[in-house]
Amino acid sequence: MARWRLITGHYLNVLLDGKPAEWEYKETDRTTGKQGRKVFPVPMLMDPNDPADHNYPGEIIVCHEGKGERRDIVFFGDPTPDMEPYDEEGEAISTALAAQWQHPIESLPATMSDGESAFMAKLMEAMGQQKPAANTSVSIEQYNELKSLVEDLKAQLATSKPSSPIERRA
Asked: Which of 43, 72, 74, 40 is nearest to 55 (CA)?
């Protein structure tokens, strides 16, 4: 029969009364007064956590066209990993598509190849041979000189500040 139970919310291309779900956009031209109309096929959100979406008590059952029961929601396209097969035909379709559902990161090998290991060893050796950065410490004399310059600047700023807000604007 090719039926599935939705485990999580899905945006699915469904058939409503035998036609794909659509959204209609209407616009009236201001100069001619003629109405333009565009129709777009859109997916429909079906969430098993929303009781308003349930077509069976506590669940949403979907199927391919002509493959389900009267109350099932008909969708077109492939099932997803978050659809639980409800019958043997659904199980066969899901099993055939399971290879496409592998996560790209989780499918990477867990160990490095010989070339990668050699590259990492060379990189670590090169990092270990680098010289440390030059000493950038400041002597006490340089610090005291800088401190006296800052004090001089503070004194100059204190004497050149205007005393009232009117003088500041001028």
From this structure: 72
pTM of the model: 0.56
- DSSP string over 23-75: EEEEEE-TTT-PEEEEEEE--EEE-TT-GGG-SBTTB-EEE-TTSS-TTSEEB
Q: How far is CA 102 from CA 7, 99, 108, 121, 164, in A?
A: 18, 6, 10, 31, 72
- In tens, the pLDDT along 111-169 reads 888 888 889 999 998 888 877 777 778 889 999 999 999 999 999 998 886 665 565 55
Q: How far is the C-alpha of 135 from the C-alpha of 19, rounded, in Å?
A: 75
> How far apart (Å, rounded) are the C-alpha atoms in residues 158 and 91?
83
HSE at residue 165, side-chain half, CA atoms within 13 A, is 0
Do the beta carbons of residue 18 and residue 97 sit within 8 Å? no
CB 28 within 8 A of CB 34: yes
Residue 72 contacts residue 62 (beta carbons within 8 Å): yes
Q: How many helices (H) and strands (E) does the chain have?
A: 4, 10
Task: Convert the pLDDT of each residue in 117-127 to its tens digit.
Answer: 889 999 998 88
From the list 69, 51, 67, the residue with the least C-alpha distance to 59 is: 51
